[in-house]
Design goal:
Structural class: alpha+beta
Number of domains: 2
Largest sheet: 18 strands, mixed
CATH superfamily of the largest domain: Diaminopimelate Epimerase, Chain A, domain 1
Shape: globular
Number of helices: 6
CATH class of the largest domain: Alpha Beta
CATH architecture of the largest domain: Roll
CATH topology of the largest domain: Diaminopimelate Epimerase, Chain A, domain 1
Distance between the termini: 22 Å
Length: 274
């Protein structure tokens, strides 16, 4: 069985920037163990698997090399880039996922891709876990939390860029990850994302966490339209617009690789999927 494989750099308009994701359209769902093995073999931060349910509507699942995850923004953007490239007439796509429901993606101007996601703002915490403070080299000014991550808020961009993470300590916060964030100098806000329990030390660009970062900074900065920068080694730009119930997260993407996965016949059995 031969399956198409694409690797895309997302949230960037240049190759070797942003965050890389593998995208694999499937004829049907494969066994979960096979999906996980493929994601581990791909060895990028996430692999998105897609099964078309009707024209323009796909079920989507995301796997890191270690585990299935609830939502991955950059792999969703990468998936839309692949599907829009395969069908130049397509203007709108809908992805369905168990944890976040339906995600609508539309073509923007100049290659921009717009993704509509649910608002997932963080909330205050009664007690900061000691592992969070021990796992970051700089103490945050404030800590918030969402289902996805602990939010470590810093006073300025320099602190976010300077903070170092101890992966062994932060891994004890599983299943939550850690995002460090602050107001930006040339953008509205910056962030870095640490996820040793679920994928690796630092994610290059994390679209999903902006469903929480965007409403947080929209409230604090007093504006709904925001330009965000994830200050990782590769870096990535995200353009966010916060609505009453959803947030639009937009960015560019660039195709890096296109190929085939040769799956042995014994591994191609269908499974129930998400």
């Amino acid at each position: 069985m031969k399956l198409p494989l694409y690797q895309v750099d997302a949230f960037t308009d240049r190759l070797f920037g942003g965050n890389y994701a593998a995208v694999m359209p499937l004829p049907h769902w494969l066994d979960d163990a096979v999906l996980q093995a493929i994601a581990a073999e791909n060895n990028v931060s996430e692999t998105a698997f897609l099964v078309e349910q009707q024209p323009g509507h796909f079920a989507i699942r995301w796997f890191s090399p270690l585990a299935e995850i609830d939502f991955c923004g950059h792999a969703t953007l990468a998936s839309a880039h692949v599907l829009f490239s395969r069908d130049p007439a397509c203007q709108t796509l809908t992805f369905s996922a168990a944890a976040v429901g339906e995600l609508q993606l539309t073509r923007g101007e100049g290659g921009l891709i717009n993704m509509s996601a649910p608002l997932l703002p963080p909330v205050a915490v009664a007690q900061v876990p000691p592992e969070l403070l021990a796992g970051l080299s700089l103490p945050p000014a404030q800590v918030l939390v969402s289902d996805q991550a602990w939010f470590a808020l810093y006073p300025d961009e320099d602190a976010v860029r300077a903070v170092q993470a101890d992966p062994q300590v932060l891994a004890r916060l599983a299943p939550r990850d850690v995002v460090a964030t602050a107001p930006g100098r040339e953008v509205d806000f910056v962030s870095r994302y640490f996820w040793p329990a679920n994928g690796g030390l630092e994610d290059m660009v994390t679209g999903s966490i902006h469903a929480g970062l965007a409403p947080l900074w929209a409230e604090r900065l007093g504006r709904r339209t925001l330009h965000a920068y994830q200050a990782s080694a590769r870096g990535g730009h995200l353009y966010c617009e916060v609505g009453p119930q959803r947030v639009q997260i937009s960015g560019y993407a660039v195709l890096y690789l296109e190929g085939l996965v040769h799956l042995p016949d014994g591994l191609e059995g269908a499974a129930s999927g998400a």
